[in-house]
Amino acid sequence: MAFITANWNPLGEAFYRKTELYEMCWNLKDGLGDSLVAAAPYGGPIALLREPHRRSPSSRPQLEMYSASGVSVASFVWKSGPVVHLGWTVSDELLCVQEDGSVLIYDLFGSFKRHFNMGLEVVQSQVLEAKVFHSPYGTGIAIVTGSSRFTLATNIDDLKLRRLPEVPGLQGKPSSWVVLSQDRQTKVLLSIGPELFILDNTACTAVVPLGLSPQAGSIIQMCVSFSYKYLALFTDTGHLWTGSSHLQDKLSEVDTKKSTPPKQMVWCRRPRSQQPSVVLMWDRLLLVAGICQDTIQFPVEDQCVLVGELDGVRIISSTNQELLQEVPMVCQDIFKIASMAPGALLLEAHREYEKSSQKADEYLREIKEQSMLGEAVRQCVEAAGHEYDSNTQKSLLRAASFGKCFLTDFSPDLFVSTCRELRVLNAVRESDVGLPLTHTQFKQLTLQVLIDRLVYRQFYPLAIEICRYLKIPDFQGVSRVLKHWASCKVQQKDLSDDAIARAVCVKVGDSPGVSYSHIAAKAYDCGRTELAIKLLDFEARSGEQVPLLLKMKRSQLALSKAVESGDTDLVYTVVTYLKNEMNRGDFFMTLRNQPVALSLYRQFCKLQEQDTLKDLYNQDDDHQELANYYVTASYREKRLDSRLSVLQSAVDEYNKAKNEFSAKATEEEMRLLRFQRKLDDEKGAGLLGLSLQATMEALLASGLNKQAEQLYRDFRVPDKRYWWLKLKSLAEKEEWEELEKFSKSKKSPIGYLAFVEVCMKSNNKSEAKKYVSKVTPEQKVKAHLAISDLEGAAEAAIERKNESEMGAVLSRCSSSDRLLIDRLNRARTSLAKK
Questions:
Q1: DSSP assignments along 196-230, one per residue
Q2: Each residue of 279-326: pLDDT tens digit?
Q3: How far is Cα 244 from Cα 308, in angstroms, rounded to an integer?
Q4: Less crowded by CB within 10 Å, the N or C end of the chain?
């Protein structure tokens, strides 16, 4: 226990400690001197621009990027303009602000992403100073130019430059300045000598910090806390004022006895901090000044860089990296000398238990008497989360596990989640990974962002292991990591397309939530079209394959995939695309190789584009379908001459197709049309467009019997059809004498039962009886039954000795026809005996 508190330093009622995070892996011969250094918060990467002011074409600055542990990630010669400032975005992209106002953005591996400019007026006046800041809107940049004007952008991903109002009396750059994010507004606080000004969108306002001593002098350095809630001001007389960032509350004022401005000044506080402080660094001294008027001094042997964190300050030197932070209260309670806190007693009880000492029982009894065993377990678990050393973590967690054994209603959720989270944190803190996150930072950052950062750094195996260990759903975990891995894999230029495709297939397999089309799109964006096509073969959803194939100009393959999918909408999508992209000849030739697509396109053209359908048949030399098209088209023509012309084209195409029947039928249609026009001209019959049968019916109904007979002869209408038409026409007109003459004109080809039935349909029984005698013997019974002559029907049935006909007559008899029924029954009995 004494060992753990050996590096604790008291500050008021609290303690501060420095924990070594890493021995840096880099080899910096000249240290961090004469370099621009930027380190991202939350254990982020470090950027180093050596000798940034060197401008000789033969000797240019070197931009180097490292992980937090000093492992080299990227390095390249800086060939652009002079750099004023380096900073990191919230997504770990490096911002390089140049003198001319250009901002160049690089990813973690040194690849150029994009650039933007801070305004045209900056090119002339040059950037004197710049600051990168993080706000609720994202990553922002603020600059001060040679014309003493401030320009800022609150979100570089949605760039909107704001030129702030002019500061009266300012020449060049101010003594010091910071960016404040207050009430969803971004402002600039600056000092000119002892005076302070706040710049917002509309005005420049003079402000006075509450309680700042008049003898404090000019403000030469200032800094704002990680949360933007607190502000520290350092004057040229060595006074350090701390208070709220809106300057209306004062925390303390400390005389540091130092008149020279510190090289860096950073807030060091943690959530629920007892004793927040400000860390100031000079060449050989690191000073921690608390609000209690006390200070802690650490000697500095090497050039260092301070990085403000959510719960402390990272101190980076050329040899090692340390974390300076206030010791959490729960850790103080447990590890403080002679502490009687429940957690301290439980930890001591477990140590005695491991020694098989009876003192363990005494400590447990003491905790139980106070009814604080649950609190003791909670303290040990919480303290384990705050400790960086894995052995200390294990000691605390074993003590907590020991205490849990004596509790019946203690929920294990906190213990289990802390164990899992610490295992993850210990893994990412390893030097080869280089993410020195504290438990507090991890909770603020969230697990999802941590996995994103591992993926961004290409630690795919570790990210997958964490996802599996924490049982994150595949869609949010392993599958998402695999998708990023595959997108990165396709960019490897030293591997062949086949090798990459096989590797991606083996790794990704059928993982849910991973789209091969998305991976193929990445490959295509990298200029690897063939690889993209190979990857698309693994995509099960044709709807995802086809759009990308069209984008890659692989139209025929896209059409094949669409046809294979069986999705007609998808086929139509591809066909429409091809139609717009190709000339008509190539388009038709492409469709000829895909019968299904061709058939669907023909159906579409029949409904929407009739003229295209004609061209399609012409292209294919499909005379049969072209003739059918002409026949259909003829019905859309209003003028007879045009219709006859189109029908003649149909006849020609039918002849080319050697379809004699259709050709002859079309010619007869043309003859009929000419006949109809002639009659319309002569008689005004209105026959044009009617079918042959309808024309004959109309002629017979109009009494134009000669013309009807002419059609009958000219078009070789079958006798039966003509007799039926005339029979119905005469009956409908009730021309019974003409009907009788017609029946005697020659032997009826349809028989005479038809005459009986037509007359009965017109309710003329007397006329119907005239034809019963002419009916053939086989139809006699039906004829007599049609005119309700049961006696005649019975006589005919008995005479023909036909049992089924007798049954038909019996079914029509009523109870009053008793004699007829007996007669038929006797005939049936007699027939049955034979």
A1: EEEE-SS-EEEE--TT--GGG--EEEEEE-TTS-E
A2: 999 988 999 998 888 899 999 988 899 999 999 999 999 999 999 999
A3: 17
A4: C
